[in-house]
Here is the input.
Amino acid sequence: LATYSDLFKDHVDDQYVGKVHFTAASVNSTSIEIKNTTFEDEACYICSFKVYPFQPKRQTMCLTVKGSTRLM
Here is the structure.
């Protein structure tokens, strides 16, 4: 989905460009915003912080997309 490092800065995978934006980006605190979601985006995502020499910290967040569809 997206990554951040001091060396490479922020990077968003091609399929999420225009949907995922960093609202804060540092090795200590990173936030993203997901826009223009569709029902296909509904899933559980893993947020992982890996800062040497410490053990990685991981948290799972689940995105639920609600709304209605229009049939034409």
